[in-house]
Amino acid sequence: MSDADSFIDEVTEEVKRDRLFATLRKWGWVGVVIVLLIVGGTAYREWRIASQEARAQTFGDGILTALEGEDAAARIAALAEIEAPTTGGQAVLALLTAAEEAGDDNNAEAVARLQAVAANTEIPAIYRQIASYKALTRGADVLSVDDRRAGLEALAVPGQPLRLLAEEQLALIDIETGEREAALTRLQALAEDSEATQGLRRRASQLIVALGGDAPAN
Fold first, then answer.
1. What is the pLDDT, as a whole number, of residue 86?
2. Is the pLDDT of residue 26 over 70?
3. With contact defined as beta carbons under 8 Å apart, do 131 and 115 qualify?
4. 84 and 52 in contact (C-beta within 8 Å)?
5. What digits encode the pLDDT tens for the residues 147-194?
6. Which of 49, 124, 193, 198 minimizes the number of CB atoms within 10 Å of its CB?
7. Angle at Cα 153 formed by Cα 148 and Cα 156, nearest 5°?
8. Whole-angstrom distance, CA of residue 165 vs CA of residue 50
9. How far is the CA of 42 from the CAs of 34, 37, 47, 48, 148, in angstroms?
């Protein structure tokens, strides 16, 4: 019985091995494909990350080189030659170019460039809001008071990242248009806002005193 059992076990093992080899011959390529996909996917991911980092590095170096130009015109021309790798990069490039244009007394061009960024829905919202804010604050000699007020009120909505800065600019417009009481009310709210920075509170308090109001309690 022992020899018979041993013989049966050996035959069973051989059958199992034959079946295993047959299965491997039939489906082994699937495992190879899976391994190749995993290795290929990992390699592609690493290549993509490296490419993105290289483009970002090239973009940053290009900006630094452009800003080393001798005058605003040269810097603007150099910035125009740079290709941004992302929509966020395009926004940054436009903001820098607009700053150079404004510094070169091309305020109208700067405002138009910033407004184009603000209107581009493909650009991340935060960049659009920054561009809109800068256009509105630079546009005193380009945009009407009503246009500036409307734009700033859109940025001053609760929950928006530039709310407090927009409120400060709205107070300045109130002062510009002779609306002293409205300016004082807005500045008082800014000085007491828990989200306001120390610098913003200080500026609000200084304006309140300059307008003849009572300095907020510390």
1. 87
2. no
3. yes
4. no
5. 999 999 999 999 999 999 999 999 999 999 999 999 999 999 999 999
6. 198
7. 130
8. 38
9. 12, 8, 9, 10, 51
- Longest Cα–Cα distance of the chain, Å, equals 114
Burial of 185 (0-12, 13-18, 19+ CB in 10 A): middle
Question: Sign of the CA dihedral 77, 78, 82, 84?
Answer: negative
Specify whether the CB–CB gap between 94 and 114 falls below 8 A: yes
CA angle 99, 165, 202 (to 5 degrees): 110
Return d(Cα 206, Cα 200) in angstroms, integer: 10
Q: What's the rounded mean pLDDT across residues 28-52?
A: 68
Amino acid at 165: L
Contact 186, 196 (CB under 8 A): no
d(CA 87, CA 95) in angstroms, rounded, equals 12
How many CB atoms lie under 10 A from the CB of residue 157?
10
CB 123 within 8 A of CB 117: yes
Whether the CB-CB separation of 130 and 160 falls below 8 Å is answered with no
Q: Which helix (H) or strand (E) holds 154?
A: helix 145-155
Give the residue ranges of DSSP H helices in 67-124: 72-80, 87-103, 107-119
Q: How many residues does the chain have?
A: 218
Sign (positive or negative) of CA dihedral 133, 134, 136, 140: positive
